[in-house]
Design goal:
326 residues, Alpha-lytic protease prodomain-like, 2 domains, 9 helices, 3 strands, ferrous iron transmembrane transporter activity, transmembrane, Cation_efflux_TMD_sf
Length: 326
């Protein structure tokens, strides 16, 4: 899988390099600040692609004594770096657009620039769709983030093409820096979103989609000894998943029986996330009398209270660090 991810990101890097050169050629032909804005953003594609290549290589390295949880967290640095670069490009674009408002320049060879820009946009569209699909299939944050950036480039280029066509037929040259300002704002927003996603990962913010998947698979295969599940915490680094939780079991089970129950939970979670590597840390709690009200074990030799009803597992009772009913 690592070789496939590297091959994909290297393809993205090579294509981005060629397309960036084509956009700068279009700028030299037309002197359009909007095209220059598009070209500046494409430079970020190249720089981010190079950084992403290294992050994928590092994320694929096995665990070691210094990195017992693996190296997958570097992907959050990768998308954070890309987001910061995009944000910086947006600022440069806004500054350049304001300069062109103050000191306007006449456009040249718009038709030639449009043909070049149209070709680069089509190539970027194909590349962006490929990266987004591959990122989803491989569950790679780096590839998905790169694909998101490429698709943003596509949308801004489409708007730019429309603006240049209007300028060509109307002579409204003020539209060139105006479009560049809009592009700059959109690029700033996209850069912020990527940085926000990076910070969330680095701060170990809970991914509720992962939590829901774990709850769903364990609820569907709930063992009669599994009295409750609580204090669940999930982390995802690249294709590595770390699931921590507490499970309440009958206090009279032997150690070998407790081990079998824990092993069953681990197997179910691993099967649910079979596209990656899963590691579970499960703490077992002994049941207490209050658990009898919702304990599913029909023939319990020590039941002290009658069964009143099953408690459905959800975020509300699985995430807090307390037994159900307390």
């Amino acid at each position: 899988m690592l070789k496939k991810e590297l091959r994909i990101i290297l393809i993205s890097l090579a294509v981005s390099f060629v397309l960036t050169a084509a956009k700068f050629l279009a700028y030299m032909l037309t002197h359009s600040v909007a095209i220059l804005s598009d070209a500046l953003e494409s430079i970020i594609n190249v720089v981010a692609g190079a950084f992403a290549s290294y992050s994928i290589y590092l994320a694929g390295k096995p665990k070691d004594e210094n990195h017992p949880y693996g190296h997958g967290k570097v992907e959050f640095f990768s998308i954070g770096f890309e987001g910061a670069m995009i944000f910086f490009a947006g600022i440069l674009i806004l500054v350049k657009a304001v300069q062109y408002f103050i000191f306007p320049q006449e456009l040249h060879k718009v038709e030639s620039g449009l043909w070049l820009l149209g070709g680069t946009t089509l190539a970027n569209l194909i590349l962006g769709l490929y990266l987004r699909r591959s990122g989803k299939q491989l569950n790679s944050l780096t590839i998905s983030g790169n694909g998101q950036h490429i698709m943003t480039d596509v949308y801004s280029s489409l708007g730019l093409i429309i603006a240049l066509v209007v300028i060509h037929f109307t002579g409204w040259h003020w539209l060139d820096p105006a479009v560049s300002i809009v592009m700059g704002v959109l690029i700033l927003i996209n850069g912020y979103r990527l940085m926000r996603r990076s910070i969330s990962g680095l701060m170990d913010e809970t991914d509720m989609q992962v939590v829901d998947r774990v709850i769903r698979v364990l609820s569907a295969n709930r063992g009669h000894n599994w009295i409750d599940m609580h204090n669940m915490r999930t982390q995802q680094y690249g294709n590595n998943y770390h699931i921590d939780c507490h499970i309440t079991l009958p206090y009279y089970l032997e150690l070998s029986e407790v081990h079998d129950e824990v092993k069953r939970v681990e197997e179910l979670v691993s099967k649910e996330f079979e596209n990656g590597e899963t590691e579970c840390f499960i703490h077992t709690d002994p049941c207490i009398p209050i658990c009898c009200h919702y304990c599913l074990k029909a023939e319990c030799p020590v039941r002290s209270h009658p069964f009143t009803g099953e408690i459905t597992w959800s975020r509300d009772n699985v995430l807090p660090n307390r037994k159900h009913g307390l």
